[in-house]
Each structure stands twice: as C-alpha cells, then as structure tokens.
Amino acid sequence: MADRLQAPPELTSDGMARVPSLIRAGKLAEAQDVLRLRLADAPDDSDAHYQLGVIAHRRLDPVTAHDHFRRATRGRPDNAALRWNMASMSRLAGDAEGALGALTELLALEPGHARGHAELAGILDLLGRHGAAVSHARQAALLARASSDELTEIADRLLALDCASEAAACAARALEIDPKSLVARLSAANAHAMQGDSAGAVARYRAILADHPAVPAVLDNLGLVLLEQGALVEAGHCFHRSLRLRRGRPLNEPADAYADIPAVAAPSTASSRMVMHRLVHDLGQIEHLRHRELLPGSFDHVAGAYRALIGRLGRAADDMTGFDLAPADLASIGPWHDRLVRLDATGWRDQPAVNPSLDAAGIEDRWDAANPHIVTVDGLLTGEALEALRRFCLNSTIWFEAKGAGYLGAYMKDGFNDPLLLRIVEELRQRLPGILGRHTLRKMWAYSYAAGMHGINPHADFAAVNVNFWITPDSANLDPDSGGLIVYPKPVPAGWSFRDYNAAPADRIYEFLGPARAAGIRIPYRQNRAVIFDSGLIHETDRFRFAPGHDNRRINITCLFGGR
Question: What whole-number distance in Å separates Cα of residue 192 and Cα of residue 481?
Fold first, then answer.
C-alpha cells in the first residue's frame, strides 16, 4: 500500500500542467517552486497540495505528504483517492490510528472500495482487532472486481489473517483471469501450504520455479514447507539459493558455486533504513574479521566509513530509533550493508554434534514429571560442535535484522542454516524422541546482543516445543546469577492470536500473568546450556550484563518444533 499513490483525476488547476513532468524527471525543487507560487495566490489549491504531497512522498517524508493530502481534501471533500494516499502515508509513518481514520473516511465515501477494505483489515489486525480485520478482508473478497492483481492482494491479506480457504478461493479467481500471473500462482501455493496441503504446495512451488527459477520468495516458501515435511537438507538448498539471489555470493565462496549469481551483488532488499546498534555491530564484525585476516584490505576503507558515520550521528541517533541514511552515507558502506560478504561454513559432515554423554532417558523422565513442561540441559553440544558453531556465528555476515530492543537476528532464509545446525536438529529429535520425535523443525534463528542491551519482552511461540541454547563463553557473562531466561508457569489462552501472544506490549502480558509472574522460573546463563520447554508458556530474556566486544556478544539459538 505504502508505495502506491492514487492520483485524483479531477485535480486539474490551470497552470499546473508542467508539474507532473518535472516530478517524473526528478526535478523536485523546480516543481516545488512552481507549486509555492501557486499557493501564494491560492493557499487552498487542492492541485498544488496534492502535488506537494507527491513530492514529500518522493523525499521519504510521509508526515509532510499526509499533511498536504489532507489539505487537498478541503477542496475535494468527496475524493476517495486522497484518503487512500493519507492512509498510505500514515502507515509509512507508523501511525496506525491515522491510517485507520483515513481508511474509514474512504469507505464512508466508497463503501465498495475492495482495496480499502483489504487495507483496513491489515490496520485493524495491527491494532489487535482480529475479528474486525477478518470481516473487512472477507468483504474485500466479495467486492473485488475482475482484476488479477487486486484479487491476489486480497488473497495475501486473507492469508495474513489465517483465512486460508477464502485466500485460496481469491487466488483461484485471480488465476482464472491470468493463469500465468506469478504473484497469483504464489498466493495459490501459499494458500495450499496454510491449509495443510504440503504436497500440493510443494508441487505448485516447483512448477513456479520451473518457469521462474530466480524468485527468492518462492524458494523461501518452498523451503519452509520442506522443513515441515522434515526434508531439512532440501530446505537448506532452497534457502541457500534464495539468500544469494537476494544478497549476493560471499567473497570466500568458490567461483563455481552458484556461478549464475554474481558475487556480493547489490541486493534488491538493500534499504537506507538503519538503527545505530546495527551500525555498531557491523563495524565490530568488520574489525573482528580484518583482525583475523578473513576480509580483504579493501574493507579497512569500509570500516573507516562506518566509524565516520557513527561519529557524525553520535547521540543524535538513538540506538533503538530508525533513521534513513543519506544516499552518500549508504554508498559509503555499500560494500558491506545488507550483503552476504562472508559465510564461514563449518563443513560439518557425519560426526556427532550433540554430546554423546547426555542422559537422554533422564531428560525425558524430567520432562514427563515437570508441570509445566520445562527442563534444563547442560553440556548440550560436543566441544568441537560448540566451537564450530561459535566461529560460524562470529565470522558469518548473516546478522541482517535489527530488532526493536537492540539485538540482531539471523534466520534460516538469511544464512542461518549451516549443516551443523541441521545435524543438531536431527540428533535432538533422535536422542529425545519422547519430547521432539513426532515434531519437525518449524523455525530456527539466533539472536546476538551487545553489552548493556535489553532482551526479548515476555511472549509465547506458535510451536509445540522450544529448544533454546547459549554459545557465548561464560567468561563474557559478568553476572553468573542472571543472563539467561525466565519461563512463567502459565500458558497463553487458546483463543489468543499470534499477535496477541507474540507481539503484545509487556504490560499486557504481565497483567495476564498476574500472580504467576512472581512464580517465574529463572534459568541463569551458561555456555552450552539448553532450556527445553512448552512453546505455549510465556517467557522472556532475563536481565543480563556481558562484557563489551564483538567476541563477547551474548548469542542464543532457538529451535521451534511442531505446532501448538
């Protein structure tokens, strides 16, 4: 929605004919001068305010754009397109309530606006009003006109709301109109996957790839379904290729590997959006790799660019607040930013990764006796596996996602799928069949925290069983009595949506916990310690105090098995 402005066709003030062509040519300042002259004579001219809104949108200033679109409505109170644009800008600015208001006004003017209902569904879901969101998404499906693109957008909205059967029907209608539409074919495959038809979904994804072999979203989704089927190695191949298509091949990869993909290509996902803690992490990793001569000397220049950028921003850029980098700044860190520069693969083959000395039967007995289900396991991995996993995490440039609390995430589709990790998953299922044997891996990720950060808020996960373990040496932990995990003996209610239990504000979760909050089970941090527990239990990162430095970052790994 945010990238699609609608142009009100009736805005045709005299003397404005050249402005759109100036904007298309990128001559924004010249267009703005013309518009200011127009507003000097007619301060409420709707045409001028609309075009100034377009310019502000081009300049990534959604707040100013929204203001101009709103002022344009004074002369065009019945114009629905302006409300659409206001909603788009509110959403870009993170103002969900503003988007809600604009879309409500739009639908009051045009009750049959299918896309308006679909976008309102997304906003309502964001605001936690799931039932109303589903109602508007279904209304959008009923109102959709004979447009494959529109039907596909609505299908995707229904999928996001877990309305798989309605989404499948919408996608099928889109394919009747345009059988070759890539996005419609993808939506149909996604609907089959959500409905539990994994074989049908896999067949559809593979058919798409036969025609379009270089679409990362198709590879990623195929990989996820293969995970659910337990085909870890094949899923990994999908993620490997998708990652390189999006972020380029690493410099240390042989030239004949993925030869059809350029090395360290400029990825389509590159964004100027940044947070300070991501800049600090990336500089620390560049320095770490250069010190070990794992990057070429040319990256000394990139490190210098990072230092200069961090120095210029200083305290003006809060660690947790996003900001847009100027084009010149983005270009200066371009050889690194959002690229797969190095992948320090472990090359793990057939040797054991999980500690052979683990008392598997004892672990399962403790699990069966525990109420709620939660067990702690020390010495999870062999020494060789632990060290290899540490090198992989410290030396691989896979930490692309900056999280709101200040930590960074690495995910399976973005490179966190080394054969060693897949080996650990398979061995855990084999060694602990009573806990994990009937559950396939659903997701896996790692989080990396710097000294002085806060961890994850209280939440639950969608899976059946969580396996969470830590790999940073104990010497980095400055408070051995903390630094781990708190698990509360209270599961989330069955009626809560994923957003309710996974992304709700901490205060709401604490209110739900009530007296159970005081009964939280605190598991202190230890290297190579795992905590295995029922995914429905509310849990959060304990307070922690680790030493500074890239090698001392607190790294935890989470594996989610099965479904609730």
Answer: 47
Lookup: tokens for 118: 């679909």
321 in helix, strand or coil?
Answer: coil
d(CA 26, CA 22): 6
| DSSP one-letter string for 25-83 | TT-HHHHHHHHHHHHHH-TT-HHHHHHHHHHHHHTT-HHHHHHHHHHHTTT-TT-HHHH
For residue 425, give the nearest of 409, 441, 445, 443 by alpha carbon. Answer: 441
Question: Quick one: how far is CA 320 from the chain centroid?
Answer: 16
Identify the pLDDT of residue 267: 47
DSSP string, 247-280: H-B-TTS-TTTTTTS-BT---TT--SEE-HHHHH
Q: What is the pLDDT of residue 264?
A: 62
Please report the pLDDT score of residue 2 as a whole number. Answer: 44
Query: According to the model, what pLDDT value does residue 9 have?
Result: 53
Question: Under a CB-based contact definition with an 8 Å cutoff, are residues 509 and 490 in contact?
Answer: no
- Helix or strand (DSSP H, E) at 287: helix 276-291
Instruction: Indicate the Cα dihedral angle 38, 40, 42, 44, nearest 10°.
Output: 100
Residues of 157-171 as b/e, b for ≥16 C-beta within 10 angstroms? bbbebebbebbbbbb
Structure tokens at 99: 């988007």
Residue type, 314: G
SS3 438: coil
Distance CA 295, CA 373 (A): 45
- Cα separation, 553 vs 556, in Å, equals 10
Where the chain has pLDDT below 50, the residues are 2, 11, 267-269
CA atoms within 13 A of residue 537's CA, in its CB half-sphere:
25
Confirm if 298 and 251 have CB atoms less than 8 A apart. Answer: no
Rg (CA), the chain: 26
